[in-house]
Amino acid sequence: MHVAVRRTTHATRTGTLLDMTTAIGRPPGATPTPPGSARSAPGPAAGSPTWPSTDVPSATGLPSAIDVRGLTKRYGRRTAVDGLDITIPTGVVAGFVGPNGAGKTTTLRMLLGLVRPSGGDGTVLGQPLRAPASYLPRVGALIESPALYPALSGRRNLTALAVLAGIPRAQVDARVETILDQVGLAGRGGDRFRSYSLGMKQRLAIGAALLTDPDLLVLDEPTNGLDPIGIREMRTLIRSLTGRPTQPPETDADAGSARPRGRTVLVSSHLLAEVEQICDWLIVVEGGRLAYQGPTDRLMASHTVDVVLRPEHDHDLAPLTDLLAGLGLPATRGERDVVVTVDAGDRESREYVRALAEVNRAAASRGITLIEMSPRRDSLEDRYQGLVTAARAGGATHPPTTHTSTAHTSTAQEARR
Ligand SMILES: Nc1ncnc2c1ncn2[C@@H]1O[C@H](COP(=O)(O)OP(=O)(O)OP(=O)(O)O)[C@@H](O)[C@H]1O
Which residues form the ABC transporter domain (predicted)? Predict the structure, then answer.
């Protein structure tokens, strides 16, 4: 494993982090895994209470990269992580999201063998969680801030770490150049680390974690402190790391960085919009407990759709709202429009088309001309707020249901008004 952490030295069960970094890894090329993605993999219907581990999709055909049950960490009387069940399919980018203090870092540290669990069991890369030395050689990690030698160039930092990682000397130079290219630093490899921007430092640290060609890459808040350009570069990089960019590459360099085989990436973040764009799989925690786990797409799938209706004349707002109430449709009147909630599966469904056509005909029959009927998409932020609120109120590991969706859609509407 290669871990980059903030502290200067840090004794672990698997080794010592040398001057904030350590490299324990197998040389690249071993244990290849086939390509694949679970982005659009089928799963249980929305509303089912859990995502059973036996149903976790894996387009790679391989067992889950991470499958742990009842993961718990207690610090004295405080329970930081409380019986987490986590299953992550091989080959996905998995987002690990939760409010401050939710237990994300503690969980990642337990998975990396840096913190001993108080309870729980399972496997990481098919090896026992309780024997981290068995899987850490196939894991790369960036925990907290990048931590490399300030006075050395990016290239020399990577070279030193590659040697420490046991990569044969004859392969080191080529490996380092490949990594510099992959993280977008080919033109700056000769510059001292301390002269790098924060985004460059983060990308070099990810490059260090990639040196051993890990099958699992764990990134704790890699976008922390980055400006929008740095975030965009990080997004492109992370998307390239599983070897199957989830969207068309943004630059020629992106296209060249695609990895020919699968790798699982677990990334924690507070930036939910980023997580939505990058991650196939999502794990939401609150108070050390699981609030959601499953495909990101599924979290966004809704049973109801909010539609903004705008009449030609403002004096029609009140009659339109009454009309919708008469049709049994929940509606909220705004200054220039009315937002109606249609219980119609999704925007592509026939029910949705029928419901809107009915609203349109009813409005026309009352002499109300609608000049806009536009669906409003819940953001991941809205969904996340709903999950966190439900978890704080004692909710369990439920994917979104009609009730949850409607409840926080209303909250989101209120916030927008
Ligand atoms: N070494 C420790 N000793 C005592 N309590 C700890 C320790 N490490 C973490 N905690 C507590 O465990 C809880 C979870 O912390 P953790 O850092 O895992 O959360 P987090 O989700 O990563 O938060 P953030 O997003 O703010 O980094 C917090 O209440 C924290 O104070």
Answer: 66-312
